[in-house]
Amino acid sequence: MQLISSQMVGYMERSSWIRKMFEEGIKMKKEFGEDAVHDFSLGNPDLPPPPTVKEALADLAEQAGEPFFLGYMPNFGYPHVREKLAEEVTKEQGVDVPADCLVITCGAAGALNSVFRAVLEPDDEVLVPTPFFVEYGFYAENHAAKLVTVPSKPLTFELDLEAMDAAITDRTRVVLINSPNNPTGAVYTREELDGLAAILRKHNEGRDKPIYILSDEPYRFLAFDGVEVPSLLDVYEYSIVCSSFSKNLSLAGGRVGYALVNPAIEGREALMGAIVMANRILGFVNAPALAQKLLAKALGSSVDISIYDSRRKAMAEVLDNAGFKYTMPKGAFYFFPEAPGGDDVKFCATLQEEKILAVPGTGFGYPGYFRLAFCVSEDVITRSRDAFVRAMEKAKA
Ligand code: PLP
């Protein structure tokens, strides 16, 4: 008896590399002890939420006896939270964003799925530069669409605009980008984004449906050395931003984020209505009430990003010492170095022998590299120093 759909059988066999390494890590920590394992497998923010979150929870406890405290609400979220969010997003994006351009969602993941549901027809194509956050493929297939991948430039992971241009077909409906990027730490420059916008405008001519840029931005707050994370909103009219508070407030399990439709889209009310409807009928109904109320009070605060910066420098020192080749991440909390010898799966197995857990680039559609998530204590990073040297020596032998 086949209990599950054939598609799910396939998905589960392929399983995610990240989960696989995460589970390996649990096993190894049991066997060798927590301190002996250097686990860089998972992008799960380890910093505590800022104090505003705890204060907000205490305040909210006082209101918990009121009727409808956690009751149903409009599918786009609580109106007062949307108003506050609009103010915050206006500051972040540097573009005036009215509240009615926002849908509060179950994280960026919920936002991406709601937007896809709102715009994609079966067999439409979602173009994504690689390496990419592996869930994108599943999300596209949730809506019977196809993910089409285009490799970014080696080592720097800049967009390969010529290759993206060549990959666009009549079925391309969405170009999905993520900056600051998971897994590379790249931040796309204004020139790259202008270049992409020019290509899409050219393809939009004569079409009755625009190609959207969907900009996935949960790491917007985490850019280092003062680097600019340009807003898509004034670069390309058919742009939609998805983001969340999973990383900047360490609220990943709170499941709260948003979709932001560019106010410049003519007739955007229909698109907004469709995203709100999608949020409802995908079964999210609305983003969690408690997390929204927390958000209203904690917006504008953030985890201490200087801690991530300090870890980034410590990780760079460890990798330099062992002789790895990589581009220093400009944002997010990942390194994506070259795998010595070229075989990333093999090299991650070598790392594992040295009790280092990393995810092969293959898992992100970009073999030859591996990902290290540095949302771990600095102690784990500095302790891994000799293990990286030994793994490099083995790879060279
Ligand atoms: N997009 C990227 C690039 C991510 O790395 C993640 C989570 O790690 C998500 C989306 C989903 O985040 P959320 O918790 O907001 O759904």
| Ligand identities | pyridoxal-5'-phosphate
What is the distance, rounded to the nearest whole angstrom, between the alpha carbons of the first and last residues?
Answer: 49 Å
CATH evolutionary superfamily of the largest domain: Type I PLP-dependent aspartate aminotransferase-like (Major domain)
Domain unit count: 2
What is the percentage of strand-forming residues? 5-15%
Q: Give the class from helix and strand content and strand pairing.
A: alpha/beta
Q: Count of helical segments?
A: 14
How would the global form be characterised?
A: globular
CATH architecture of the largest domain: 3-Layer(aba) Sandwich
Average pLDDT confidence is 96
In percent, how helical is the residue content? 40-55%
- The Rg value, from CA coordinates, equals 21 Å
Q: Low-confidence parts, pLDDT < 50 over ≥5 residues?
A: none
Query: CATH fold name of the largest domain, please?
Result: Aspartate Aminotransferase, domain 2
Going across the biggest sheet, name each strand in turn. 2-8-7-6-5-3-4
